[in-house]
Amino acid sequence: MPLLGKAALAMWWNMASELRSEFEDWHTHEHFPERLAIPGFLRGSRWTDAGNGQGVFVLYELEDFSVLSSPAYVARLNAPTRWSAAMMPHHREMVRAQSHVVASCGGVITRYVSTLRFSIEGTAEALVASLSRQLEGLSAEPGIVGAHLLRHETPGIETTTEQRIRGTPDKPGDWVLVICGYARDILQNRVDNVLADAPSSGFEAVGDGRWHLYTLSCSAIRSDVA
């Protein structure tokens, strides 16, 4: 099924290898339950770099975009636990896409996920329409189960305590493509062609301009961690 809800919080960062074990314990047993207790948070999923690098990708599926500025969520961001405060400075080079779900086809929770961040100069309608049509067919291909398009919008909230602890401003994600699948080789080969037929005018990949592949570490809904 598609992404749960009409909004999503997608995040990328690097976590040093020597902290990976503690980070995954904290994120699984404290952070997921804390976030999923917030009204409007429907599911949290974490993937780690498929090449055993330091990259982490986390996706929270949300009821709607207003959750990202809700009093309950802002209160948590401004009152991190002691363990959270200890882990936050190690979230290096964080990117946060606080997103509307523009298109969502097929499943989400799969062994592999590949992500691409990009920006659009000028009008986005033609590119979005092209991608939306393509994602529906892509999600039914062998080796792939889902394809999702997100659009970032910065919520109207002040800088939070968690952001100050991390030390550097979070970078925005702008537009995001998330392709989910179970066959690594097919997924890696297929994503390179996702934008081949899309209108090229105004499209620009951001970051290092490459797709990044991750493997599933943990996923939970509220009842899993209540």
Describe this structure in words.
This protein is α+β, with helices and mostly antiparallel strands and 226 residues long. It has one domain (7-225): Alpha-Beta Plaits (2-Layer Sandwich). The chain has helices at residues 20-36, 71-77, 82-87, 125-138, 161-166, 184-191, 222-225; strands at 7-14, 41-49, 55-62, 92-106, 112-120, 144-152, 171-172, 175-181, 203-205, 212-221. It has an 8-stranded antiparallel barrel with strand order 1-3-2-10-5-8-6-4. It is globular, with a radius of gyration of 17 Å.
Largest sheet: 8 strands, antiparallel, barrel
Q: Estimate the strand proportion.
A: 35-45%
Mean pLDDT: 90
Number of domains: 1
Topology as a string of helices (H) and strands (E): EHEEHHEEHEHEEHEEH
How many strands?
10
Reported by name, the CATH topology is Alpha-Beta Plaits
Q: What Rg, in angstroms, do the CA atoms define?
A: 17 Å
Going by helix content, strand content and strand pairing, the class is: alpha+beta
Give the second-level CATH assignment, the architecture: 2-Layer Sandwich
Would you state the CATH class? Alpha Beta
User: Which spans of ≥5 residues are poorly predicted at pLDDT below 50?
Assistant: none
What distance lies between the first and last C-alpha atoms, to the nearest angstrom? 23 Å
Number of helices: 7
The portion of residues assigned to helices is: 25-40%
Strands of the widest sheet, in order across it, are: 1-3-2-10-5-8-6-4
Shape label? globular
Provide a concise account of the structure shown:
The chain is of the alpha+beta class and 226 residues long. Helix content is 27%, strand content 35%.
